[in-house]
Amino acid sequence: MASESLRAIKQLEDRLYDEKLVERYRGEILLQRAEEFARALYGIVTPADRNIVAEERYFAEQEECLPNEVQLFIENDRDGLLVRYGGGEWISLDYASFYLLALLLYSERPLTGDEIHQTLFFSFLEREVTEAAIRKMIERLRHRLPFWESIIETARIGNRVARRRQRGVSSRIFCRASDVFPWESGSFLK
After folding, report:
1. What total of structural domains would you count in the chain?
2. How high is the mean pLDDT of the chain?
3. Residues 73 and 33 both lie in one domain
4. At 62, which helix (H) or strand (E)?
5. Per-residue burial over 68-98, b = 16 or more CB atoms within 10 Å of its CB, e = otherwise
6. What's the confidence (pLDDT) of residue 72?
7. Which residues contact 173 (CB under 8 A, 6 or more apart)?
């Protein structure tokens, strides 16, 4: 709708036009050029913040991977969900595993299977899974990602196992600005 409105403004500017109508279009659209509209839709998410960035910064920052950094990438064109560590090779993940890893990397405190269930599966993915299924998914991730032990810390809370990002490990998620994550659903306590 915005792109069509921008084209209509361009056509109106090229000939005699009703100035009030053009001003109304401009007031309803935040971005003045279609190119800017397409380029302003990228996001970089870290445990500290979420930034909306221009296309140049989005792609430039993907090239800069620190030695102790995990990068997660949502490739919208082909629905790819990718992860890499320390600038290594990208590894493809399924939807649930990708968001489980993102949640663990985001959390400052260790999360138990019950907390993962509530935040990720019940509230965000709206799927009913058992804690045993979550443990199995974590086990598969541990085998799939050769760097798992370097990025995820396992701790005990009472008699329960909990996991979170290792100290000294950073993470960035490269996504569209409109992508939503489990901790943004309102039911997650950092």
Report:
1. 2
2. 83
3. no
4. helix 55-63
5. ebbbbbbeeeeeebbbbbeeeeeeebeebbb
6. 96
7. 43, 44, 45, 46, 71, 72, 73, 74, 102, 181
**Could you tell me the pTM of the whole model?**
0.75
- Tell me the C-alpha to C-alpha distance, in Å, between residue 9 and each of 1, 35, 118, 159: 12, 14, 48, 64
What average pLDDT does range 101-129 have in this prediction? 87
Distance of alpha carbon 151 from alpha carbon 165, whole angstroms: 6
Write out the residue range of the structural domain in which residue 120 sits: 41-185
Our CA angle for 97, 189, 176, nearest 5°, is 50
Which pLDDT tens digit goes with each residue over 74-99? Answer: 986 656 899 999 999 999 999 899 99
Q: What are 142-169's pLDDT values in tens digits?
A: 999 999 999 999 999 989 999 999 999 9
Rounded CA-CA distance 138/97 in Å is 8
Asked if residue 154 is part of any domain, the answer here is: yes
For the beta sheet containing 160-165, the strands, ordered from the edge strand earlier in sequence to the opposite edge, are: 111-112, 160-165, 152-157
Q: Is 12 helix (H, G, I), strand (E, B) or coil?
A: helix
